[in-house]
Amino acid sequence: MCSRASMMQRPPPEDFSLKETRPHLGGGKVTGDKLTSTYDLVEQMQYLYVRVVKAKELPGKDLTGSCDPYVEVKLGNYKGTTRHFEKKSNPEWNQVFAFSKDRIQASFLEATVKDKDVVKDDLIGRVVFDLSEVPKRVPPDSPLAPQWYRLEDRKGEKVKGELMLAVWFGTQADEAFPEAWHSDAATVSGTDALANIRSKVYLSPKLWYLRVNVIEAQDLIPTDKGRYPEVYVKAIVGNQVQRTRVSQSRTINPMWNEDLMFVAAEPFEEPLILSVEDRVAPNKDEVLGRCAIPLQYLDKRFDHRPVNSKWFNLEKHIMVEGEKKEIKFASKIHMRICLEGGYHVLDESTHYSSDLRPTAKQLWKPNIGVLELGILNATGLMPMKAKDGRGTTDAYCVAKYGQKWIRTRTIIDSFTPRWNEQYTWEVFDPCTVVTVGVFDNCHLHGGEKNGGGKDSRIGKVRIRLSTLETDRVYTHSYPLLVLHPNGVKKMGEIHLAVRFTCSSLLNMMHMYSLPLLPKMHYIHPLTVGQLDNLRHQATQIVSMRLTRAEPPLRKEVVEYMLDVGSHMWSMRRSKANFFRIMGVLSGLIAVGKWFEQICNWKNPITTVLIHLLFIILVLYPELILPTIFLYLFLIGVWYYRWRPRHPPHMDTRLSHADSAHPDELDEEFDTFPTSRPSDIVRMRYDRLRSIAGRIQTVVGDLATQGERLQSLLSWRDPRATALFVLFCLIAAVVLYVTPFQVVALLVGIYVLRHPRFRYRLPSVPLNFFRRLPARTDCML
């Protein structure tokens, strides 16, 4: 009954499908597959722009003869104001206001200069524009020059003072658009809140791997000279801490020759701090010396050639009468330290990497093309928070490709936001992924003060560039799917236009023959453990630096875009990966079943044809490889008719998101370490033990088969090994005197023999193999 109810509550599969669209891009100027206007991957949005530059000779309105001026720009029900100045008759604002043409209901624009007062603001003067006379500007036209306008009173008579303005109609392609005050955000007040809703471009910090090769130390002075010191080196860079093992040579001249790896970001703000410590007790370490090394002066290595090693002096401080006092002594540490420019610092999951270039710019290859992304709109968004007793969403998008992050402006209080913003990236490798995420801005209307300090995730889309045809504009509406503790949920749809333009087809084809990562990853590979640790440190550094930008790209946004936490245990993901493996092996299983049908003569005509093909290939072995490759070629040509026409998108069935048990999802959303009650943890632990027991059995069976293979010649079973050795001798003599084609022909005909000549019992070789001993007898 429960399963039937959950099936009825599950959304229909078509809700999660990708939909191709035909939007009116770039004002409809289309030539072939390419569009010719600026911002050609988005729909044009018309705006009325008002640039308030400055004013002069404003009259005083206070008793003191001064004024505190500001400008109010009013269009119908929409009103925007500049900041005000204290006691200034010649103020400069240089602020831009943008009013959406779709919402204009007035025929006049009014720019009013007012004097800010405690009780009521006084009118200084105003300028009125008839919208029918406002010029239209389309980039790449030069910006419209502002002009001086004499102020008038409410009766239309000239008064003292002038205001410099520029008024024009334009689109979102205008240079003034990103920094403008938008009438859509009229309800947002405050400088910080306005900064939080504007579109911005961010760059990830330049990341380096820092390699510290600790070789040895000399002339250490331990406090207790009557014991053998247990010395290790601790290295710190920012929040990263690494330790060497305790030196095997327990002397005052210990040796390690051990590599410690860190992630460092430009500009280098924190030094490398090294301390040599002696483990005098299980939980007590004594510092024998320490040194601090600024990173900006370190050698940079671009290939596998080693850098020169150096000796560094160790310093030690002691407390004398409550004050720190430095002890001068001759202890030194020998190290080889360098910044690795030949690696790519992995800050994303390797499955969704958007950049694979090495750190050093000198090693970069020329770009192979350009990626253009138009973020059009979203539809059907869910309410993410409550305001004034009703649900609301203030949505914005973030896209990441390579080191460049973009953030669209926030559309206030809309479940169908229209952004229509276009961005461009250079592409250096086609086998990369662009990620687009949609978020709800929780930092407006005093969100931080009210405790709403985290932007909520609405969903994200990944697009792999290698799945796109070059020079084609893809316009699709992607479902925004998010996994919640109560199941997968569609949060809306995002409408994107994507175009991948290739500058050189030959260079792009050549990329497929090159290694995926820079060559240092293969010449001096890092261990899996090192890569996991370094990736974690890199994501922390990137999120910390972007959080410090203005406006900030917040930690929860960066971590969601970088898939932080995707490596954590999940029963749902484990099932999905198991069935992915089964899907890959299903082709081999199908071939095996087909061959079994051939051997059993289910279809005699097919079996006879296979016999003939086999005899031809045995008699003419030079045809084997050409036949295989010709067969693969024909399959590829045949499948071309059914090639994918749309980019791939999130698949709930492949992810097992639509069939996951509620407890499995609750486990996936659990914190680390766990925060669930002990009885639930015990149940999940027992379930994990059960699964691990099955895996253990399978691994043991594989080991048994391998050990049986080894025991053929190990004389563990002397009779079995003697039989096998004798068989090998007879086989060598027979194969020497018999042509190989005859042997192959006889073996093939024997395998394909008619069922009348078969037995249901296992074959002799299989019986012999299963009787061989394994090391399971020695297992406890």
TrEMBL record:
<feature type="domain" description="C2">
    <location>
        <begin position="352"/>
        <end position="478"/>
    </location>
</feature>
<dbReference type="Pfam" id="PF00168">
    <property type="entry name" value="C2"/>
</dbReference>
<dbReference type="InterPro" id="IPR047255">
    <property type="entry name" value="C2D_MCTP_PRT_plant"/>
</dbReference>
<feature type="domain" description="C2">
    <location>
        <begin position="29"/>
        <end position="149"/>
    </location>
</feature>
<dbReference type="InterPro" id="IPR047258">
    <property type="entry name" value="C2C_MCTP_PRT_plant"/>
</dbReference>
<comment type="similarity">
    <text>Belongs to the MCTP family.</text>
</comment>
<dbReference type="InterPro" id="IPR047257">
    <property type="entry name" value="C2B_MCTP_PRT_plant"/>
</dbReference>
<dbReference type="Pfam" id="PF08372">
    <property type="entry name" value="PRT_C"/>
</dbReference>
<keyword id="KW-0106">Calcium</keyword>
<dbReference type="InterPro" id="IPR013583">
    <property type="entry name" value="MCTP_C"/>
</dbReference>
<keyword id="KW-0472">Membrane</keyword>
<protein>
    <recommendedName>
        <fullName>C2 domain-containing protein</fullName>
    </recommendedName>
</protein>
<feature type="domain" description="C2">
    <location>
        <begin position="188"/>
        <end position="312"/>
    </location>
</feature>
<keyword id="KW-0812">Transmembrane</keyword>
<keyword id="KW-0677">Repeat</keyword>
<dbReference type="InterPro" id="IPR047259">
    <property type="entry name" value="QUIRKY-like"/>
</dbReference>
<feature type="transmembrane region" description="Helical">
    <location>
        <begin position="723"/>
        <end position="752"/>
    </location>
</feature>
<dbReference type="InterPro" id="IPR035892">
    <property type="entry name" value="C2_domain_sf"/>
</dbReference>
<feature type="transmembrane region" description="Helical">
    <location>
        <begin position="578"/>
        <end position="595"/>
    </location>
</feature>
<feature type="region of interest" description="Disordered">
    <location>
        <begin position="1"/>
        <end position="30"/>
    </location>
</feature>
<keyword id="KW-1133">Transmembrane helix</keyword>
<feature type="compositionally biased region" description="Basic and acidic residues">
    <location>
        <begin position="12"/>
        <end position="23"/>
    </location>
</feature>
<feature type="transmembrane region" description="Helical">
    <location>
        <begin position="607"/>
        <end position="640"/>
    </location>
</feature>
<dbReference type="InterPro" id="IPR000008">
    <property type="entry name" value="C2_dom"/>
</dbReference>
